[in-house]
Amino acid sequence: MNSQMPVCVPELTATILLVEDDRDIADMLSEMLVQNGYTVVSAQSGAEMDRVLRRQSFDLVVLDVMLPGEDGFSICRRLRAEARTPIIMLTAVATDVDRIVGLEFGADDYVTKPFNSRELLARIKSLLRRASYGSERPERPSAMSFDGWRIDPVSRTLVDRAGSQIFMTTAEFDLLVALCLNAGRVLTREQLLSLTHAGVAGPVERSVDVHISRIRQKIEPNPKDPSLIKTVRLGGYLFTPRVEAS
């Protein structure tokens, strides 16, 4: 990790839960985040995290994969089943498989150890901005309808044909909004990363594929033969439905 602490005027005010059993890493991250205007609470295990969550809620979770007892993947899956709080996973294994497993379990982003402090800080700011915790919120598009579905970027809700709200992670929701705003246009993975990461370099391109797969499971009549989100060979993805203001 980069030992030089990045310090800047905070753009966002948020409370962050750091789940990390390595004291040195936890202390370094806590110091960096506090210096940048965030409130930080630390936990060293899933059990300790559960006790903390019973007392308060958080705007973002930084979660290590390798923890004593319950591992980070299992914890991520539990957290995602209960809330849409943004989750950044820290992994010491720099393989696509390890990263993709975390994304499949509902993580919004990941950072590989050893990491650059500035990169992690940028990713945290990006996720918080996308999750609408910024003090200055950019103008957002109005609600949209497609194929019987309704998506509202302001309330960040997706409602199906029966009127039921469908749970989505921050990354999934932002990808679907980007697709709706560009319906009928092929978007490359690089364009989708740019549109959903506020200009900050995002995860590897394959993470887009994982999130698209999860979105298909939620909105496609037949996820194995998708009709709403088409894969364009050597191109990217095409959102086929007609999208209208709702």
Automatic annotation (TrEMBL):
Keywords: DNA-binding, Phosphoprotein, Transcription, Transcription regulation, Two-component regulatory system. Residues 141-241 bind DNA. Residues 15-128 form the Response regulatory domain. InterPro entries: CheY-like_superfamily, OmpR/PhoB-type_DNA-bd, Sig_transdc_resp-reg_C-effctor, Sig_transdc_resp-reg_receiver, WalR-like, WH-like_DNA-bd_sf. Residues 141-241 form the OmpR/PhoB-type domain. The modification 4-aspartylphosphate is found at residue 64. It comes from the Bacteria. PROSITE patterns: OMPR_PHOB, RESPONSE_REGULATORY. PANTHER family: DNA-BINDING DUAL TRANSCRIPTIONAL REGULATOR OMPR, REGULATOR OF RPOS. This is Response regulator transcription factor.
